[in-house]
Amino acid sequence: MTQTFTLDELAAHESSLVFDRFDDDTAWRLGVALRDAASAAGHPVAISIRRNGQRLFHAALPGASADNDGWLERKSAVVDRYGQSSLRVGEGFRSRGKSFEEDSRLDPGAYAAHGGAFPVNVRDVGCVGNIAVSGLPQVEDHRLVIEVLQAFLEKA
After folding, report:
1. What percent of the chain has pLDDT over 70?
2. Can you give the pLDDT at residue 156?
3. To 10 degrees, what angle do helices 138-155 and 24-41 make?
4. pLDDT for 89-99, tens place per residue?
5. Distance CA 34, CA 152 (A)
6. Contacting residues for 9 by C-beta, under 8 A, at least 6 apart
7. Burial of 149 (C-beta count, 10 Å sphere; 0-12/13-18/19+)
8. CA–CA separation, 80 vs 127, rounded Å?
């Protein structure tokens, strides 16, 4: 079993992985970087990047299914609502001995606090969208996003 991240580590990811600006071209280049990394590792994932509710990038690699698209939507809805990664929201509930599905009072058919969706934070603006991956165990979905995002931002 893959070890998860602490709440402090998850918060640190969000505060450090910040864009100076985020436009259509940035979304495309980041999406391609995610797809290339997932493909090279043989990961059967679906990838989505959205800004202000508009999908700017989507890809499904071999082995991904329509179910992964459903997970992308549900995990992205958590980021849109809370402005935090879907893993951080889920871990926050679990750390308080609660269940997101029962205690959030949100429809579990529309929201999933499982790892893999991450906020697109823009410096001096805040959360403007999300990056989501589905197809691996939740911690590995999250890890893929943050590792590619960190490398992408270091090159920018």
Report:
1. 99
2. 82
3. 130
4. 999 999 999 99
5. 9
6. none
7. buried
8. 8
Measured from the Cβ of residue 85, the count of other Cβ atoms closer than 10 Å reads: 30
Q: Which residues contact 96 (CB under 8 A, 6 or more apart)?
A: none
State both tokens at 11. 């918060």
Q: What is the reported pLDDT for 141?
A: 98
State the Cα–Cα distance between residues 102 and 116, nearest whole angstrom: 20
Q: Give pTM, 2 decimals.
A: 0.95
Question: What single letter denotes the amino acid at residue 98?
Answer: K
Structure tokens at 111: 């929201």
Residue in 22, 8, 15, 38 with CA at minimum distance from that of residue 143: 38
CA atoms of 142 and 6, how far apart (whole Å): 13
What would the pLDDT profile of 56-85 be if each residue is shown by its tens digit? 999 999 999 999 999 999 999 999 999 999
Q: Tell me the residue type at 133.
A: V
Q: DSSP letters of 24-68? A: HHHHHHHHHHHHHHHHHHT---EEEEEETTEEEEEEE-TT--HHH
Parallel, antiparallel, or unpaired for β 18-19 and 126-134? unpaired
- Whole-Å CA distances, 10 to 28, 83, 89, 100: 25, 13, 10, 17
